[in-house]
Amino acid sequence: MSPIDRGFAAVVYGGSVLFALLIVGLFVELVLGSWPSLKAFGPSFIWHSAWDPVANKFGALPMIYGTVVTSLIAIVLAAFVGIMAAVFLADFAPRWIATPLSFLIELLAAVPSVVYGLWGLFVLAPLVRTAIGPALQHVLGWTPLFSGPIYGVGLLTGGIILALMIVPTVTAISREVIAAIPRDLREASMALGSTHWETATRVVLPAARIGIFGACVLGLGRALGETIAVTMVIGNRPEISASLFAPSYTLASVIANEFTEATTSLYISALIELGLILFLVSIVVNALARLMIWRVRGSRA
Amino acid sequence: MIGTARLHRRRVSASLGTAVTLLCALLCAGALLVILGYVVVQGIGSVNRAFLTQLPHPVGVPGGGVGNGILGTVIIIAIATAMAVPVGLLTAIYLALFGRGTVPETLRFLSDVLSGVPSIAIGLFAYTILVAPLKHFSAFSASFAFMMLMLPLLVRTSEQAIRSVPQTVREGALALGMSNFRATMRIVLPTARPAIITALLLAIARVTGETAPLLFTAFGSQFWETNPNRPMAVLALQVFNYAISPYANWQAQAWGGALLLILAVLILSLGARYMLRQASRRLES
Q: What integer pLDDT is reported at residue B62 of this predicted model?
């Protein structure tokens, strides 16, 4: 190896080491920042439901609840629509329709979070208060999920906004996974006399199901950590209520709302610990999703 | 006869099913058009010369603009790009040219992990290592957070772009006596350039509208701030603050700002698409 090449290799290694250090540093700094809170509350931080900065009492349960419920609403709404759209784009649509439609759906993913929040706050929230909410209450009001006053902002509105934001992820990845299913399977099914629809639902989708599940889990991961849009429509109240119309809080939005106002070091530390929880959950969810997607698609690309 | 009835039923359900998938695809695309349409209709009225070039006015004083936020967005993204490109490219070169075995596989995994980390957690990281020790908010800490957000996309896509340069091209350069360094700089990177620029444009588009990490890094400012060591106004942050304010005048400006953000993201995405076409054309020829 010439000196130039040795130097070149050294610089390239250096850059990669720096990159690795940044990621490790992210984890280390979050742990260090949450240390006072970890020491003060221990694991009970996760299941305590009091969030009272004045009394220096911090428990993450209401935020974990809000995060899980909004994300579940989002994935329930986005999974069906996203998978069906993916089937259409991958198997049914002619190219001249599939290409522009996919592009539009990709753009939906590029719309900034704060724009979704703005739209959610001024268009969706009033719609939930005056139309969607009352309609749901009329039909399903006997369940605790849809009872109580409708504020407009709250778990349901947050969930719908999140659904809009993750549907492009679910669609794009499901579409790739479906496209990766070998043609032979489709041809064999058609040769046996199946319709296109039967081929898609009974042959292609079952073959792709792990990857499609992975796409949904990846969407779920995005929903869990999404901050600004949810912060604008969730209502920002650290309470656990059964009703989906009730205002709530998520892990990410409590950090967004309270971090710059946090006065004591324990308060700041508790907020960073919420970030640490979010970080760890997102790693687990993303790792799972990727494993499932690779199993179907075969490569890491 | 039973056979035909059954066939008929299967045909009907096939048509119905196809219609449902079509509806779902249209629903997704329609949602985008509805949101875009809303932002354009609500925002177009606020966008004028003063809006683009002036400082924000205090509450109650009509007029004013987001000029400092636009400038701040450009400065913060420029610094983030200047930091992300060298680190990202070097890592991508490492992974593409030297990358087999456990260490590179771990690095790829870490990169994937980073791409899934919520931006708010990355903002907290920027806060703990750059804001808390210096005891003041700064535009630079926001650039640092943006760099972390841009890196995974940049690394992953650039690695693929470098890999897709045919091995024979590289070997040809080496056979002519070029050093590994020169072959990479003169032959491999220029061939992969359009794809790398595509990745960069997409990474910039991703952070242009990013707001969460700015809350406790750039923080915002009422002035024409250009010093990266001080708090700085950012367009996305202004949109957020105006949107949740109770003043109609500010809310109208939030729609105007949202329109600007969407336009920027749209232009960057279209630019990325154009570059991608260039990239595939270059590899074909």
A: 84
What is the number of domains present in chain A?
1
Residue of A nearest to B161 (CA): A301
Residue-wise pLDDT for B170-186, tens only, equals: 889 889 988 888 888 88
Q: Domain limits at A160?
A: 3-297
Q: Quick check: pTM over 0.90?
A: yes
pLDDT at position A4 is 85
Query: What is d(CA A17, CA A25) in angstroms, rounded to the nearest whole number?
Result: 12
CB spacing of B236 vs A112 below 8 angstroms: yes
Helix extents (H) in A155-241: 155-179, 183-191, 196-198, 205-225, 228-233
What CATH number is associated with residue A31? 1.10.3720.10
Residue A58 DSSP one-character state: E
pLDDT the model gives residue A298 = 66
Chain A touched by B181 (CB under 8 Å): yes
Mean pLDDT of B94-108: 87
Alpha-carbon distance of A272 to B143, in angstroms, equals: 20
Helix ranges restricted to H, A88-182:
95-110, 113-119, 125-127, 133-140, 155-179
Arithmetic mean of pLDDT, B67-78: 97
Rounded mean pLDDT, B111-140:
94
HEC assignment per residue over chain B = CHHHHHHHHHHHHHHHHHHHHHHHHHHHHHHHHHHHHHHHHHHCCCCCHHHHHCCECCCCCCCECCHHHHHHHHHHHHHHHHHHHHHHHHHHHHHHHHCCCHHHHHHHHHHHHHHHCCHHHHHHHHHHHHHCCCCCCCHHHHHHHHHHHHHHHHHHHHHHHHHCCCHHHHHHHHHCCCCHHHHHHHHHHHHHHHHHHHHHHHHHHHHHCCCHHHHHCCECCCCCCCCCCCCECCHHHHHHHHHCCCCHHHHHHHHHHHHHHHHHHHHHHHHHHHHHHHHHHHHHC
Indicate yes or no: CB of A197 within 8 angstroms of CB of B265: no
Instruction: Note the pLDDT of residue B98.
Output: 81
B118–A110: do the CB atoms touch at under 8 Å?
A: no
Contact call for B116 and A18, based on CB within 8 A:
no
Residues 6+ apart with CB under 8 A from A281: A224
Q: Which two tokens stand for residue B19?
A: 């219609």
Q: Is B271 on the interface with A (CB under 8 A)?
A: no
Question: What's the pLDDT at B2?
Answer: 60
Chain B closest-CA separation from residue A225 CA (Å): 5
Q: What is the pLDDT of residue B285?
A: 58
Mean pLDDT for back-to-back runs of 10 residues, chain A (301 residues): 85 94 96 95 92 91 96 96 95 91 88 96 95 92 89 95 95 93 91 91 92 94 95 93 93 95 92 96 91 73 40
CB A242 within 8 A of CB A145: yes
